[in-house]
């Protein structure tokens, strides 16, 4: 049952990165789109994320519940020493969701729409930025439980070049995912070419941010190169991610839309695998040299069994409902187009 819970945890993080990340990325793309062209970008993004944006956060909720119930020591450590970026991220999620609803469904159209737009766009950037910062902080070895002052305990644990670089990489990856997904949502060939161009730009930015992550890691003496390339699984994951990227652009050039989406999600999966495999079963690397492990810092067996069965039974109901949600809205969209 322990491994079942760990698999659910890893998959929930992955699905939030891929699906929720593309959701955030749609707002980031709109943020960096020139004002005269934002209307078309906004329309395509709304058609893509409008029906399911709220469901994407389910994966984050599942991950939080698993940590809270199954690994309380890990949950409490993150909640204490990373409470500042966690609060910013959660405020970003709340503000973004609120602004999305009001800017698309508000009965009164007035100057407040501009405020809703700004909140939505800037929170779309801030939220994945701090999500990446939190992820980077967990493996950076900067969390110091023995710290005796506020800055070292609650600020320097996440405010460092490596964690910020991971945050910027997360932002760029979300934007790349969204660009690829939105190609198939374009209303005409002109808009499709525009999203292809955006995908190319964000692909370059993502590679550049990835390079910055490795530079920041070397500057802060974090053995990221060894973590990623020093084992067979990590090396294979990087190779597969690179090959799938080449195949993705070949398919995009041929006018395909479905398979590039799958390949973009596959790349995100390989990136997450390359980074997390070497740390397993450790979840948090502490400055003291100790690690918080998914094996050594678990809840009592009774709690783990109850959690495992709850996840299994819950997935039987939730997963088919999610597939039906995607199917029904895609069906409605095709009906509108015809």
UniProtKB/TrEMBL annotation:
Q: Which GO terms describe its cellular component?
A: cytochrome complex; plasma membrane
Which biological process annotations from GO are given for this protein?
aerobic electron transport chain
TM regions (residue ranges):
6-32, 53-74, 80-99, 119-139, 159-183, 195-217, 229-252, 264-286, 306-327
What are the recorded GO MF terms, alphabetically? electron transfer activity; oxidoreductase activity, acting on diphenols and related substances as donors, oxygen as acceptor
Which of UniProt's keywords are assigned here? Cell membrane, Membrane, Transmembrane, Transmembrane helix
Membrane topology label: Multi-pass membrane protein
Question: Which family does this protein fall into?
Answer: Belongs to the cytochrome ubiquinol oxidase subunit 2 family.
Mind telling me what this protein is named? Cytochrome d ubiquinol oxidase subunit II
Q: What species is given as this protein's source?
A: Mucilaginibacter straminoryzae
